[in-house]
Structure formats: C-alpha cells, structure tokens
C-alpha cells in the first residue's frame, strides 16, 4: 500500500491563493518587493479594511511576510514558501 501524503499543510495556502484580490496583492509584491501598506492601498485601489483582511489571510498562510517600521507595516512575498508550493516535489505527487 502506498504511503499516505498529508495535504493539510497545503490546504490553507491554496485557500489563500483562491482569490483574485490576494493573487493581485502577491503579484504586486513580486514586482515591487518590500512595500508599505499605505502604498498598496493606492496601487490596488482598495480600502484599508479590505486590504487588511486579505493581507491577514496571506500572512496566516505564510505566503507573505510583514515588517513593522514605526506605525507602518511593510509586506513582501515569502519567496521560500511560494517556491515550496511551486516545487517539483509537490507537482510530482500529481504526475504519473
């Protein structure tokens, strides 16, 4: 019998990715690098409350990182975690 694979660690990450706004946030962070939340509001044309909601989901899933400087939060893509999701190891689980 083949060894069972635990997919639980991937569930939260894929749920976080299953939203167009969150994908747009990740794309902008990929393009811009470490970005202030105040700039993300302007770039994405989102109200602070909605943006905070989406950022929290991405943070909880480990897909982005946050650094606080004074009163502002700066966000960047967690490249290591994103690369793990796109890794051959995960992709090969679904190939014959």
From TrEMBL:
InterPro entries: ArsR-like_HTH, HTH_ArsR_DNA-bd_dom, HTH_MetalResp_TranReg, WH-like_DNA-bd_sf, WH_DNA-bd_sf. This is ArsR family transcriptional regulator. One of its GO terms (molecular function) is DNA-binding transcription factor activity. Pfam families: HTH_5. Residues 2-96 form the HTH arsR-type domain. NCBIfam families: HTH_metalloreg. Keywords: DNA-binding, Transcription, Transcription regulation. PANTHER family: ARSENICAL RESISTANCE OPERON REPRESSOR, TRANSCRIPTIONAL REGULATOR, ARSR FAMILY. The keyword Lipid metabolism does not apply.
